Amino acid sequence: MELYGAVEAGGTKILAAVGSAGEEPLALERIPTTDPGETLDRIIRFFRARASEGLPIRALGVGCFGPVDLDPDSSRWGFVTSTPKPRWQGADVAGTLGRALGVPVGFDTDVNAAALAEYRLGAAEGQDPTVYLTVGTGIGGGAVVNGKLLHGAAHPEMGHMLMSRRGDDAFPGSCPFHGSCWEGLASGPAVEARWGRPGEDLPPGHPAWDLEAWYLAQGIVNLLMVLSPRAVILGGGISQVPGLINQVRSAAASLCAGYLDRPRTPAEWARTIREPGLKIPGLTGAFLLAEDAADTKAQ
Amino acid sequence: MELYGAVEAGGTKILAAVGSAGEEPLALERIPTTDPGETLDRIIRFFRARASEGLPIRALGVGCFGPVDLDPDSSRWGFVTSTPKPRWQGADVAGTLGRALGVPVGFDTDVNAAALAEYRLGAAEGQDPTVYLTVGTGIGGGAVVNGKLLHGAAHPEMGHMLMSRRGDDAFPGSCPFHGSCWEGLASGPAVEARWGRPGEDLPPGHPAWDLEAWYLAQGIVNLLMVLSPRAVILGGGISQVPGLINQVRSAAASLCAGYLDRPRTPAEWARTIREPGLKIPGLTGAFLLAEDAADTKAQ
Q1: I need a labelling partner for B225 at 20 to 30 A (CA). Which of A179, A207, B41, B144 fits?
Q2: What would the DSSP string read from start to end of B62-125?
C-alpha cells in the first residue's frame, strides 16, 4: 500500500500524519504552532522518524492557514504571505518540507483541503460546487467548483465578505481590517467580545445564538447568490453548538425570501447546509492533495 | 465557413444573429420581448428566413434572462423558471427553438454567456476566474471558474447578495424580495427611486455617483472574497457613466482596506476591475455556446 504524508497547519496547532485519504492514519502527531523554523523542523523530524520505522511517504499534502501563495507560476508558491501571525510572514512552508523530505508536495489552504475532502469522500460527495466553512477563531471558506479547488488571484477569503449588521446589534465588529465583515461579526472572538464571555459559556437559548445563526445565514445566502453551491458544509467549533445548524437553515430561508428556486423547501435547505461528514476533513484533504501531487509528478 | 445562430434574450428586447463568435454578424435582428409564443416564433422565423437565403446555422446558442433551469438532468432544462415577467414563467425557450430549427442548442444565462465571451475573446482573455457584471435594470453576474461557466444548484444570482447600507443613505432598497440587496441598492431603478430621476439625468459630480460607486465596490469586494477572480468586467448601462469605474476601483480598494495581497496597488485594481472588451459580449457568448453545443453533439 502506498503511503502519503498529510499536514493540517492551523494557527495554534499542526497535525501531521502518515497514511492515505479515507483511512485511519497509521501515525499521527500534534505539533504546536510556534515559530516557522522550529515548527517545520518538528514536522520534518516526524516524517523522517516514521520513514525509519518503515512508513516512508510517496508525497506530502499540506492544508495551511492563510493567506498563502497558490500561484504555480510564482516564485513564492507555497509560502505564507501577509499573515499577522508572528514570524510566519514569508515562510516557505511547501518548499522547506518538500526539499527536506525529497517528495512532491501538494499545497493549499486548510479550508480548500477540507472542501476537497468533503466533496470527494464526505458529506458533499459529488456535489459541485461544494463550499466548506469553518467558524471558530475566524471564518474561513474553501470551495470545489467545476471539479477543482477554487483559486484565482489568490484564494477565497470568504470570512471577509462585508455584511449588514442586524438592527438590534450594536457590536461594531472585531475585524482589524473591516470591522463588521462576516468574521468581524460572527467568529468566536466576535461572539466573546459582543457578549462578554466565550461561546462555550453561553447556554442554549441565549439570544447570542439567534443572532449568530442570523449572521451565519446572511453569509451563506451570499455564497448561494455568488456560487450557487449544491452543498455548504458548516464546520468548525462554533457551528457545532447543538441546534445551531437548524437555526441557520431557518434564518437563511427567511433571508432568501423565496427568491431562489432551489433551495426552497425545508428539506432542500437541510440538503444544502450540511454538517461535515468526515471526522478530520482538513487532514483527509491534505492526504488527497498528496495523492494528487504524486499523480501529477508521475505523469 | 460554418455558421451559427446566437440569441441574446433580455427582458425588453432580443437580439438574434447569424455568424460566428468574434466576427461581425452576417445578419442581425432586434426583436421586442413580448409574450413567449410570439417572441419565440419571431426568432424561429428569423433563422428560417436566413437559412432560405443561404445562411443555415449548424447550432444555436442562447444567452437568456433568468432565472432559468440549467440542470442537464432536469426535464425543464432550458426553461425560464420563476421570473416575475408576465407569461414567461415556465417558457421552454431552448426546447422550442431547438425543435423548430432542428439544430443543437447551447443555453445559459445572458451574463454567463457574456462572461464566457470576455474570458475567451475579450478583456479577460485567459483570466480564471472571470466575473462579468451588468448593472442596469437589475444587477446580474456570470462567471467562468476553472475553465467552465459557473453552475450549480441553479446559476449565480449575484445581484441578490445582501448588503450593508452606507450610513448616509436612508433609501430602503427597491428589491421586492430583499429590499436592500445589491440590486435593490444599486440598480438603475434603485438610483431613480432614491434620487427621483433616472441616472441619465444625474450630472457627473452628483452625490449619486459617489454612493453608486461605493455600492458597486462593496459587491465587487465580496466577489473578490468569495471567488478570488483575476478579472471582474463591469458592463451594462449604469457602469458606462464616465469616470464611474475609477470611483469604483478607489472605493473597492478603500473597503478592502489592504487585506488582500492582490489586488493592492492602483494598477492591480485597474487590472482587476475592467471595462468590457467586446462590443456585444452577450451575443458573442451566445455564438460560443452554439459552437460548444455543435462540438458536443459531434462527439
Answers
A1: A207
A2: EEE-SSB---TTSTTTTBB-S--STTTTT-BHHHHHHHHHTS-EEEEEHHHHHHHHHHHHSTTT
Interface test with A, best of B109, B145, B149 (most A CBs within 10 A): B145
Mean pLDDT within B229-253? 94
Look-up: residue for cell 458597486?
B216
Contact call for B228 and A259, based on CB within 8 A: no
Contact B289, B63 (CB under 8 A): yes
The amino acid at residue B7 is V
ipTM: 0.96
Q: Are B290 and B61 in contact (CB under 8 A)?
A: yes
> What are the pLDDT digits (tens) for B69-101?
999 999 999 999 987 777 999 999 999 999 999
How far, CA to CA in Å, does A59 sit from each of A65, A70, A285, A289? 20, 18, 13, 9
To the question of pTM greater than 0.80 for the whole model, the response is yes
Interface test with A, best of B222, B264, B269 (most A CBs within 10 A): B222
| Low-confidence residues in chain A, pLDDT < 50 | none
Nearest to B153 among A165, A229, A257 (CB): A229
Question: At A248, phi and psi to the nearest 5?
Answer: -65, -45
